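Retro notes
What went well: the complex prediction finally ran end to end.
Inputs used:
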Amino acid sequence: MQPIISVSGLNKAYGDFQALKNIDLEINRGEIFGLLGPNGAGKTTLINIICGIVKKSSGTITVDGFDNAENFRATRSRIGLVPQELPTETFETPYDVCRFSRGLFGKRDNPAHIEKVLRSLSLWDKKDNKIRTLSGGMKRRVLICKALAHEPEVLFLDEPTAGMDVELRQDMWNVVQSLRESGVTVILTTHYIEEAEQLADRVGVINHGEVILVQEKTRLMKEMGKKQLVLHLSDSIAALPSSLDDYHLDLSDDGLELTYHYDTKRDRTGITALLSDLQAVDIRFNDLHTSQSSLEEIFVGLVSKNT
Amino acid sequence: MNFHAIRAIYRTEMARMMRTVVQSIVAPVLSTSLYFVVFGSAIGSRITEIDGVGYGAFIVPGLIMLAIMTESISNSSFAIYFPKFTGTIFELLSAPVSFVEVVIGYVGAAASKSVVIGLIILATAGLFVDLQIAHPFVMLLFLVLISVSFSLFGFILGVWADGWEKLTIVPVLVIMPLTFLGGTFYSISMLPPAWQTISLLNPVVYLVSGFRWAFFENSDVAVAVSFAMVMAFLLVCLFAVYWIFKTGYKIRS
């Protein structure tokens, strides 16, 4: 299937500073793509270039097969953008700004669609309020409504839940899921890795202007995530016997907890052997559990390796 | 051409005018009426006629010109500067619009407001003095062209400005003095010869003169020259706006 967005050899320089370095990236139609990276990595620059707000230095970008420089009307009309900041009109109402956005992106007035969008983000009862009277979370939702007003095929959400409380964040996740179900491709940047873990089908990690990884989320977590087995010992031990050195176990300070890190991709995890070796040296345990490293831990590991 | 975008921008800008009707319409009409009353009464009692026209009527075209030039600049510069200031310009930059739609929307709305204000001032002046318009279509043509030209100029100013001070500095320090020295309240033929020559370097002289000709058929410079000056200014501004959008000057990094 043809990707809905294709970025090839993209570079952006501000004077001597190279903000983006030879970016190649494809976004599949209908997916939720999580774009992760530390502050200043180039996420927003990349989004702004795709949307036409910032000029590229070199490279090509196509949206639904159209070049975004040569056929900017076709590409931009397919894209909706919710920026990171909260740039909202002050004296207008949510309804009016949505109607404005729809017209600006070349769509005829459609009150029913505006109502649907405002209702879906719980803003219908605020439709005639001045935007300056709304809370930060509501203003962000107004921005999302504006971005959806022209029925885009691709939606960029740059830090969509920043400043939202837990309940609103959950609502927003539901909105993003329902957008995907309606066929909209969503590109999401977020500092909340939990958000990407929850929502994204694929994730891309960008650091120092370079894409260092693009991978399906579940595969990434399986391939790069490490699992650990924690054993709660019946009796405290002062040190581990040398016969267990090969397992590289971590012993807690109180001597009551042993942690074993293992790789699920290997043919043998070593768990069975460890348990029998523990029995051989008479170390007993009364409980055990396993856990897997989160996307956040994988992300931090990737970025620190790339720094 | 994205006609829906033009309509959206125009409608939003006109709605802003209606939201701020006191500031947008009542204030300029009131201040111009005060000019009219004060200058007309104070000077009109000493100068009864200029070039065969009663002084009260003589200053009407200049006062309309003063109002539409300042209002055009103010409206269009604010219209584009405010989104820059608040950050909402991202939407305009990411929308499927070219400079043509943006200019027609923003400049069209600013010029429309100016034309409305000009006509209201004209109607108000009609209450104070007996006013004849010799060439109403030429008067309207000048009114529209000058409103559009100065709205374009204001648009450029709004893009250039990176602070509120810069936004007001040109209207206050450049346009206002040029207008007052451009024959708004007098005919430059009343000046000493050296000052007459110097006045011809002031572009506003040509605008006021041409506009006044449409009313009274007399002018400081030939009406064709005035028309050519207006068109030249319009084309320069249009080219500047085209260049701004082509290069992204101060709007697209």
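What we learned: Chain A touches chain B at residues 14, 51-55, 72-77, 79, 81, 83, 85, 87-92, 96, 99-108, 146 (CB under 8 Å).
What to try next: split runs per interface for comparison.
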